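Colleagues,

Please find the record for the two-part complex below.
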Amino acid sequence: MPVFHVVVCGGLVPDPLQTLEPVQGPAGWGLKNESMLPAILDPWAASALFEADSLARANPGSRVWLVSAAPKAKLQQVLMALAQKAAFELVAVDAQAGGFSDAAECASALAAAVNSIAGLDRSRLLLFGGWESASRGAGATLAILGEMLGISEQFQGVDQASPKPDGSLEILERVEGGRHQVSLLSAPPALLGWATGSLPEPPNNPQVGMLNMRSAMPALQKAAPSRLTGGGLALSSVELPSQRRDTRVVKDMPEDQVAREIVEWIAEK
Amino acid sequence: METILLLVAAEEDGGLGKPALEAATAARELAARLEGAKLLAGIFGAQAGRAGAALAGAGFGEALLVEHESLARARFATDAAACQALVAASGASLVLAPATSRLQRVLAAVSARCRGAVDTHATALGAESGAVHATRWFYRQRMVGRVSRERRPWFLSLEPGVFAPHAASGDLVSRPVPAPLPESRTRVEGLRSPSSGAQTIRPDAPLLFVAGAGWCKKQADGLAHVSEAERLILGFLGKSGASLGGSKSVVDQKGEGGALSFLTHLNQVGQTGSTPRHAKGLATCCHGEEPHTVGWRFVSGRRAVNLDANCGWAQGKADVLYVADAFKVMARVNELLAG
């Protein structure tokens, strides 16, 4: 049975149901009331974490670390819910990383955190994360981190990673046209940027939560501060799209007529 | 003075995909705005030499080629080495690439190898007083910003569907570039379609049909009619050639049973799904505001069918909202399309 050391990198993003508004402050662009907005672990990073947890449980002896660059207080709030979903050891970086941060600068802070993990066996390393974030959505941070860590096998848009008894992994990556590219990775180390994955969100497990928080609180307390300055990224403007359509609401029209309108509309060039 | 390199991957048949040809147009237009800019193409693949012809007439000085049979399929280690060699040989200060899965997989890593900077999913390029800027979206298409960088080389991937594809004319001189391709622990086995067998995602389709959770909910008779919903939706897709999208809520129902069997997370649009680009979109049984708006950001003509006239998603976001029973409407639409 193969043993994996899975490091999951994931940042925090505002809850998707929140209304967001960009504001420019002395430190550059950010979100209005950013510190007050409820946050979640980035959805694709969460997929990566749940897949890592499943992989570790199926392969005894495997370990999972969650590396997150976020403000400590906000990370602690998110952990209260997240810690009940999957077992992990937390490595926290105290940083204000958001949608307007520079990918390479974030990757550099994460690389320092990964390099500081005691007991991490690089020959068993699977570096997980979201293939993109719900903040910057660039798909760059994890790839650059992989380069910094010297990982030569990278996969992005992963929906499935199935380990074989010999330690190899069959990996499904999203490609165009709703298909997957199937690859066989002979052995770690490798980087997997996860899309949605194939697992549902796990139910809450209070016992796992208590275990996680026991190690997470000290990790939060000793989180190394990292000041992200923008990494040379200049944003001359950020704005909300102002487009609002004049919606024609059609009530009480017979279904036949609605269907005819739709068919005519589809046929229009 | 900028040296612009367009980085593209040759298809297996030696052609170039539509996103690559669109990126060629973007590169040509940007070069025209920059005085003295040099424009080069970098092509990698098993048939890179043949692919160069598709870029003729776009103003490229020459096409640099990395051609090797191990580049027939997308694989990080070999693709990244090929791209790195092309960037180094070109001396590029700006590297443009289509945001396809193949280029997106390697672009950021190659930027790190070249000690450059990277920004992705650009939807517009511009230049003022010789300074290049790009437009891209943040927070899952909720806000748009204009970015620029002084660091070079600056790598930019360009969203498909934004620029008109280049139509080749004339010839383009090409030059092979040596690229040491590394051994890889990854063997690409091939492509796999969704297990449902139904090919429902068609990026080039003019119409996007989005199914919402309402299709699987109890109807007026107090029963769910999932199999009827499946028949109606697949029938519509077959007759219209539309691409199928789904809201998160309807896709998530698959894990809970009783959901549309052919929907997968690959179909998902919105906050945690894709943001497709189709000329028209028809949403049925979709509710909820912000996540749906995000998924529809780049769909031009929008219509919706649902039973809630005050639906937050449709009001102000769709052009037309039909307050009607989608089961009845789509059944009739299918009849009309069948002629």
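Chain B has eight helices and 16 strands.

Comments are welcome before we finalize the supplementary table.
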